[in-house]
Design brief:
The protein is of the alpha+beta class and 154 residues long. It contains three helices and seven strands, in the order E-E-E-E-H-E-E-E-H-H. Strand 2 and strand 3 form a beta hairpin. The relative contact order is 0.27.
Amino acid sequence: MTNPARTWKRPVSVLVLVHTRQLDVLLLERASHPGYWQSVTGSQEDHEDLRATAVRELAEETGILARAETLVNWRLANRFEIFPEWRHRYGPGVTQNTEHVFSLMLPGQAPVRVAAEEHLASVWLPWQEAAARVFSWTNRDAIFMLAARSSRLP
């Protein structure tokens, strides 16, 4: 039986690649799954536009404060199946999520304050190592795309 007072997560999220000009990529280790590494991710809240979601998740998960206009919206959305173990967070029958990709280039590797309830650790890695370490295909593909786009970075 479902709880009518429960607030379900929206099946719309952001993926934020945080990187340096040298293409060192920030990864976070999930607290609920030690050994699962990812970029900043998070679900959109009802009142937010996607850029606001990206800014909020970046601050919550890393302590990095960014202005909305410094994030690059890739205008790329990936649709994927939500892992069965996480479906209880979503409404009945929801099995797919749409993830929107953003990036933030920093001048260098910034200190990170992970949200202990969500992540165990953070690491900065060269893009090739970061792509090999992430568990999500959408995250891996975005890192490869970042490297391909790097010649167009300002």
